[in-house]
Amino acid sequence: METEENQKLPWEKVSLGERILAGLIDIIVAALLSLFPKIGWMFGLIYLLAKDSFSFLDGQSFGKKLFNLRTIALPHHSSLSGWPEKSIIRGLVLIIPILNLFDLYYLIIHKVRIADRWAETRVIRNQDWEESGS
Asked: Is pTM beyond 0.90 here?
């Protein structure tokens, strides 16, 4: 796997604020889904784990849709709708206590999540991905 420094992508980096706000929206969506009686917690958990790979959302979570962001699979530069395992890796890091705090710290310091490194993904602006013809 190439390091972030060696990997030249044709897209501008997404701001930390946009990523955090999109993530908060996704947490709110998951919390709302979990309000369904008896099985709601499963809907919320499934959403958190696979939110970037749902084909009915075109490979974007609700938060990313609102901020016009997208998570792509590297090195293919394709939507995660074809790579659900990458979305699940990213989601697992988000829901594991302590690891999620370390992931947030890593995002703030290095501008990329640990989950993105492990899953070989990046968050980009959706129009950059569309313009590249992916």
From this structure: no
